[in-house]
Amino acid sequence: MKKPTIIIANKNINYKDVIIIFALWYIIAINVELFTSKDLIDLSIVSGFLHYFFVISGRFTFLALTYFYFVSIYDAELSEIGFWEGKKHLFNALKKNFSVMLLLFGGIIFLINLPFSLNSQINSTLFNPLITISNIERLGASIFPALIIFVGAILIGFSEQFLVNKVIYPIFAQKLITPISIMFSALFFSFLLLEFTPEHILINIIYITISILMFRWNNEKLIYPVLFSASYYTAFITFITGFNYLKF
Predict the structure, then answer these.
(1) Contact indicator for 227, 151 with CB cutoff of 8 Å
(2) Residue 194 vs residue 89, higher pLDDT
(3) Quick one: which of 224, 210, 230 has its CA closest to 169?
(4) Residue 183 has pLDDT above 90, yes or no
(5) Under a CB-based contact definition with an 8 Å cutoff, are residues 219 and 145 in contact?
(6) Alpha helix (H) ranges present in the chain?
(7) Given this model, what pLDDT does residue 81 score?
(8) Which of 7, 101, 173, 198 is surrounded by the fewest CB atoms within 10 Å?
(9) 3-state secondary structure (DSSP) of residue 189
């Protein structure tokens, strides 16, 4: 498999571009964090939806500014940045991710949400789902909110997968062998999100490792890990942590 390089619009981007991309990311992240840290309303579920909305808005702003930057500097198109790769890859990605989505959602529901929901004696600060699954009716009721969250999570997935697979991983892969490049990229991702607790670092390592492998195994098309990312965030937010899982 060819050695990854940081390429936009068939041109190698330089480290000035990388610094600008990261600067945009952190400026938007800080603004979202400052805005959502204020209690806008006492109702936790409404506050959670507002927080999610601002996170999505921030990620959309990052993607829009990144696209504008590369259009201005490199005359890039959506497909060259990886933001749109055609209907064929979209449908293929949906088909390939369907089994992964079922496995992910099924595992989280039956191994985490259901036991915690049925056993009130289990206490965990991490378990604060939007929906607790205690019967089949509750499972059916979770479909609609999960779909709404999934749509927003696609933007979150695009922003993160662009940075990981188009920028961060190629930087490490230029100097290091593939397994170490993936590990360093996964560790760096926690710095990107400013998440330094052991559980978050471990989850991020698994999440980013799978994302990079999906990207490399599917002709370096971004849509494949993006849909996986959207599924991952939807499952965690809906059935484990609630909106608190997203910092910015």
Answers:
(1) no
(2) 194
(3) 210
(4) yes
(5) no
(6) 15-36, 44-74, 78-81, 87-108, 114-118, 136-141, 143-161, 169-173, 178-193, 198-217, 223-236
(7) 73
(8) 198
(9) helix
